[in-house]
Amino acid sequence: MIGAGAREHALVLALSGDPAVTALACAPGNAGTAVLAEQSSVDVTDPVAVAELAGAWSADLVVIGPEVPLVAGAADAVRAAGIACFGPSAGAAQIEGSKAFAKDVMTAAGVSTARSELVDNPGRLDAALGHFEPPWVVKDDRLAAGKGVVVTGDREVARAHALTLLDGGHPVLLESYLDGPEVSLFFLVDSGRTVLPLLPAQDFKRVGDADVGPNTGGMGAYAPLPWAPESLAADVAARIGQPVVDELARRGIPFSGLLYAGLALTTTGPQVIEFNCRFGDPETQVLLALLRTPLAGLLSATATGALARQPPLRWDPGAAVVVVIAAEGYPGTPRTGDVITGAAGKGVLHAGTRRRDDGAIVSAGGRVLSVVGTGVDLAAAREQAYQRVEQVHLLGGHYRSDIGLRATRREDGLSGGG
Ligand code: AMP
Ligand code: GLY
Asked: Most buried of 9, 94, 204, 400 (most Cβ within 10 A)?
């Protein structure tokens, strides 16, 4: 396993529960994965280092969690070393690595998405802003850990964000605003052909309760969606997942691994907000809490082109909720080095954590812990998740208290994301 977040802790935990797994290693990992897997440091931006480490560990399968190593070509390097890898090539990872590329693929595949305009020159910005109506959506074209997007009704705020990005040498994408509840739907994709949807989930991007404050990497999630139509996953697989996967294959860059569709369910149907080339964080924490199909076999089948022979996925019939505990300052500059207590509790997954020399677990990043609860329904899962959150102590730590709340009332058509 390559990565160091709560997503990777959840993946390592699920892999450790698959009887087919005889050994597990994780790099660079965190204080949570260290309990379950052999650990090593690695520069995840260096594909050769990742492939060498996989070789040194005699890995049968490498699972790459984050987008940064994928976009850098880690999966290509691992496969070139003769080792099976779960994750797309650098070429296919451009579906996340460049929003302009993703738009081009969607247009060619006939997939619904927001109208957009790429601006790479400040002199063209004002004219381009004039081609859109409020609220304005201004995005960094490149990877920005979920923090490159500003959605605002204030044209000056939109303009200022775009100029900051352009000053930093980043092209800017302006988009029309997509109105409707947000859904994250993940597809396992096998060497550019078979597309297998997981359960739809909902992610909470804004830092504060009631979707107030700046965007983050994700502050919580729940699954399944009690208000969504039963046919949603199959419908989006047919109308969005498969056409995009087919278009990438047609371009000679077949996708393999996990394709993440971030959707807005608009009045005219599902539209794509973004694609990611990897498991979402924190949605993965709830999906894996519900998945009963052994994970290693499933990821291995995906990586080796055997998904078409995979029996239907089995899921727990209940619900899961994850609440992210973030460090003081996040999503700005987080304070680190604070002692965490209660982090060994049930359902607590580590992200930005580190074990100090004296054995104490301390914060070491913005999103510090993911706390997962499950139950027979969403209300029960919420209750367990928040009870577990109460057991954790981190000075200055903050979390949202409304993850999945509106969905417990089945308030169809209301966005819990955004
Ligand atoms: P992204 O990084 O593209 O997923 O954007 C982060 C968040 O910004 C999304 O989850 C949405 O809440 C919001 N957002 C991005 N693009 C749009 C859009 N075109 N319309 C409405 N909201 C958007
Ligand atoms: N949950 C949002 C992401 O993984 O990008």
From this structure: 9
Report how far residue 91's alpha carbon sits from residue 275's, in angstroms, rounded to the nearest whole number: 14
Hey, what amino acid is at 334? P
Ligand nearest to the CA of 65: 2
Please give the number of the atom of ligand 1 that sits closest to the Cα of 262.
4
Distance from Cα 277 to the centre of ligand 2, integer Å: 10
Tokens of 159: 């303009």
| Closest to 369 (Cα-Cα) out of 401, 337, 329, 399 | 399
Q: What is the pTM of this model?
A: 0.93
Ligand closest to the CA atom of residue 217: 2
Handedness of CA 410, 258, 142, 69 (dihedral sign): positive
Let me know whether 328 and 251 are in one domain.
no
Summarize the confidence of residues 401-408 as an average pLDDT. Answer: 96
Q: Would 395 be classed as within a structural domain?
A: yes
| Per-residue pLDDT at 416 | 44
Per the DSSP assignment, residues forming a β-bridge with 183 are 263
Euclidean distance between CA atoms 95 and 104, whole angstroms: 9
Residue at 229 is within a domain: yes
Q: How far is it, in rounded angstroms, from Cα 164 to Cα 168?
A: 6
**pLDDT above 90 coverage of the chain, percent:** 88
Of 274, 309, 344, the last residue of a domain is 309
Identity of residue 51: A
Task: Tell me the average pLDDT across 334-357.
Answer: 94
Residue carrying the six token digits 């959605």: 151
Residue 241 DSSP SS3: helix
Cα 367 to Cα 129: distance, rounded to the nearest angstrom: 33
Number of domains in the chain: 4
User: Residue 239: pLDDT band by 50, 70, 90 thresholds?
Assistant: very high
Ligand 1 touching residue 226 (CB < 6 A)? no
Q: Does 417 reside within a domain?
A: no
Question: Are residues 253 and 187 both part of a single domain?
Answer: yes
Residue whose entry in the numeric block shows the structure tokens 């404050």 = 213
CATH number of the CATH domain containing 201 = 3.30.470.20
List the domain range (segments joined by +) for residue 360: 319-408
Average of per-residue pLDDT across 265-286: 96
